[in-house]
């Protein structure tokens, strides 16, 4: 694959204030009969999200010469018959403390995935496969999430219509579950049918600049060997075995590497650690083993980046009390405890979110993980070997129909933005969305640091202006997480 698409500055958006909600009628058929989609047997006039995605593909001038005709095929230059196309949505969690309506701001809904499926199917000409896959947080009830988003039923209905090979994958190797007595345990599950690959970026990792200091540790909340409730804890971690002076390894799902094309369907959200979670951050879900992803480093700057200052003693004590309540009280012996515990969880989000665990603008770790993984997504071959040229085509769609601000990515508040962005380069597409969010791109290191990468790079040699001075976009005033103010 050449660099034409990756290095393309082709990016656009559609803002349609009348589109404020997602379609609920599965399988989310289009609102009218389009000449190029003759294979779709019925329409759904309420499916305005479908229309906004189609308008985005037109705004990008895809297959411009055939636009408006029965042979319009917008993905024909990146999707070829026989390809395997991986659609990577954001399926992070099945719940939101504000309720189901707020969950629309956190995850990708089936109605925004459906038009992408149709246009990929059109380009495949019936030959190839489409995989919808993600690796949610370990406690996510995947089937509840499938029911909420309508994705599973949508796939089943489309399969009855003889679409090409179409499936949904939960890429997690294990799931955190709760027993009747309130205790939590891990359950292994069938995840990626192709398994995983270990990819060592070594001295080319963006973490390599720390290799001279053997006392550096890397933390992620998925690592339960670390005492995350003790702010002064700076011991070794499970993540250290993947990232050290000898190696920088990521354990990646092979279904991602096996894909010929990645279509990244991200959400438009703020993020407590990275500032925003858009197309670049969404690729975190390609990882098979979450412990291999550094999220922050223990301690204070300059060596660590967990906090700007240590949290107060009373805050730490309240968190430890909450943990003991969860672990030691037998739910079946205490009537109403589940409701009490849920109240505690809401309270923890509402008055919690103290600046800890890298949840602030001084986080100098997570952006490195994000950019390392995006380099792997583009440049690693099917065997997990990094190559000098891009190995798969890529397209990003950022969904801001219902976005999220504040304590994102899972505890923020919904924003009805009614906007979608699209492009072939994740850095450029993210930068446009950041401008629309009303944020300073210089604060978002996944964008501000990306142009410095010289190997397995993202940007053309002449660069680009992330402020987009010649492009007018709707400006929203997104509230940032507490640690970013």
The largest sheet is: 9 strands, mixed
Helix content: 10-25%
**Mean pLDDT over the full residue set:** 92
The ordered string of helix (H) and strand (E) elements is EHEHHEHHEEEEEHEEHHHHEEEHH
| Low-confidence runs of at least 5 consecutive residues | none
* SS summary, helix count: 12
How many domains comprise the coordinates?
A: 1
Alpha-carbon distance between the two ends? 42 Å
Indicate the overall shape: globular
Helix vs. strand class: alpha/beta
Radius of gyration: 22 Å
Q: What percentage of amino acids are in beta strands?
A: 15-25%
| Tally of DSSP β-strands | 13
Report on the architecture of this protein.
This protein is an alpha/beta fold and 485 residues long. It has one domain (11-199, 253-290, 366-484). It contains 12 helices and 13 strands. Strands 1, 2, 3, 4, 9, 10, 11, 12 and 13 form a 9-stranded mixed sheet that branches. A two-stranded antiparallel ribbon has the order 5-6. It has a two-stranded antiparallel ribbon with strand order 7-8. The chain is globular, with a radius of gyration of 22 Å. The mean pLDDT is 92.
Offer a concise description of the structure.
With 485 residues, this protein is of the alpha/beta class. It is 24% helix and 16% strand.
Topology:
Elements: E1 11-15, H1 48-59, E2 84-88, H2 100-103, H3 110-124, E3 129-134, H4 142-149, H5 151-160, E4 165-170, E5 174-178, E6 184-188, E7 196-200, E8 249-253, H6 254-257, E9 261-271, E10 275-277, H7 279-282, H8 313-328, H9 337-351, H10 366-379, E11 393-405, E12 413-415, E13 419-423, H11 426-436, H12 445-448
Parallel strand pairs: 2-3, 2-9, 3-4, 9-11
Antiparallel strand pairs: 1-13, 5-6, 7-8, 9-10, 11-12, 11-13
Helix pairs in contact: 1-3
């Amino acid at each position: 694959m050449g660099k034409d698409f990756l290095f393309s500055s082709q990016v656009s958006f559609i803002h349609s204030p009348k589109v404020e909600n997602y379609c609920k009628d599965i399988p989310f058929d289009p609102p009218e009969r389009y000449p190029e989609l003759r294979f779709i047997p019925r329409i759904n006039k309420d499916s305005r999200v479908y229309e906004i995605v189609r308008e985005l593909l037109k705004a990008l001038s895809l297959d411009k010469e055939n636009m408006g005709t029965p042979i319009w095929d917008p993905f024909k230059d990146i999707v070829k018959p026989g390809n395997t196309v991986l659609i990577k949505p954001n399926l992070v969690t099945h719940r939101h403390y504000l309720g189901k309506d707020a969950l629309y701001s956190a995850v990708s809904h089936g109605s925004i995935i459906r038009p992408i499926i149709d246009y990929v199917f059109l380009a495949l000409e019936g030959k190839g496969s489409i995989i919808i896959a993600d690796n949610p947080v370990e406690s996510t009830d995947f089937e509840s999430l499938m029911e909420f988003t309508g994705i599973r039923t949508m796939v089943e209905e489309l399969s009855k219509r003889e679409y090409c090979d179409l499936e949904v994958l939960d890429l997690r190797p294990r799931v955190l579950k709760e027993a009747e007595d309130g205790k939590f345990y891990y359950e292994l599950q069938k995840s990626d049918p192709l398994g995983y690959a270990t990819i060592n970026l070594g001295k080319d990792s963006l973490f390599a600049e720390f290799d001279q200091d053997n006392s550096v540790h890397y933390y992620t909340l998925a690592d339960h060997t670390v005492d995350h409730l003790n702010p002064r804890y700076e011991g070794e971690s499970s993540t250290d075995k993947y990232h050290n002076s000898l190696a920088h390894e990521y354990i990646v799902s092979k279904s991602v590497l096996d894909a010929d094309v990645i279509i990244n369907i991200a959400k438009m959200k703020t993020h407590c650690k990275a500032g925003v979670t858009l197309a670049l951050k969404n690729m975190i879900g390609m990882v098979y083993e979450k412990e291999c992803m550094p999220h922050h480093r223990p301690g204070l700057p300059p060596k660590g980046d967990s906090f700007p200052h240590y949290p107060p003693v009373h805050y730490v004590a309240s968190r430890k009390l909450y943990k003991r309540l969860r672990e030691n009280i037998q739910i079946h012996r205490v009537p109403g405890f589940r409701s009490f515990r849920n109240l505690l969880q809401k309270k923890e989000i509402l008055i919690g979110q103290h600046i800890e665990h890298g949840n602030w603008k001084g986080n100098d770790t997570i952006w490195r993980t994000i950019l390392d993984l995006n380099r792997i997504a583009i440049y690693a071959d099917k065997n997990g070997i990094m190559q000098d040229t891009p190995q798969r085509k890529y397209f990003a769609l950022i969904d801001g129909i219902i976005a999220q601000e504040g304590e994102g990515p899972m505890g923020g508040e919904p924003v009805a933005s009614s906007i979608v962005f699209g492009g072939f380069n994740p850095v450029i597409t993210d930068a446009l969305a950041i401008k629309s969010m009303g944020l300073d791109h210089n604060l978002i290191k996944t964008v501000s640091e990306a142009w410095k990468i010289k190997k397995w790079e993202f940007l053309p040699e002449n660069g680009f202006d992330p402020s987009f001075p010649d492009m007018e976009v709707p400006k929203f005033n997104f509230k940032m997480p507490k640690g970013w103010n």
